Amino acid sequence: MLYLKYKTAGFLLVCWLLPLFILAQETSLNQVEQVTERGQSSNTLEVAVENVLTGEGNLMLELRDVHKRSISRKMVDALEGETQVYFEDIPDGQYELRVYHDANDNKKLDKNLVGIPQEGYGFSNNPDASLGKPSFKKRLFEVDGDSQISIGLTYRR
Question: For the chain, where are the E strands, in sequence order?
């Protein structure tokens, strides 16, 4: 009999505490959503990829954050001359963008035996890459609201 009283009391306690626990969780989730909405802007990044030699193949782009984490990857048809690419819902912050022209559509940047790219490539801020890949810091740019950047492709043949 005593066991039944404790079991009933425990059941009533759980029934009383469970709604409070659920209410507390909903409040916490709502607060997190509000902070996220206020703390991050959603921007459009417009990229002009210039000096595209041919309209063959695709342009492969990767947008990375300041911690070198991939944020977005895009594959778009190459257009001779200049190709416009848009990245949507990009929060304010620092980013790096790299692009290459996959002219033969094999989904990789072709290189020669010593590692020199045989297809067009470029980086944000258009740093000099004649002596090798430029440092990550030189490739960083700021997104603060809707932004536009241009990247000129380099071809080494």
Answer: 43-52, 58-65, 70-77, 81-90, 93-102, 121-123, 141-143, 147-152
Identify the domain containing residue 83 by its residue range: 43-152
For 68-100, the pLDDT digits (tens) are 999 999 999 999 999 999 999 999 999 999 999
Domain count, the chain: 2
Domain assignment present for 30: yes
Coil, helix or strand at residue 122: strand
Together in a domain, 101 and 52: yes
* Residue appearing with tokens 């790219």: 117
- The answer as to whether 25 is a domain residue is yes
pTM (2 decimals)?
A: 0.72
Helices (H) and strands (E) counted in the chain, each on its own, are 2, 8
CA 115 to chain centre: 26
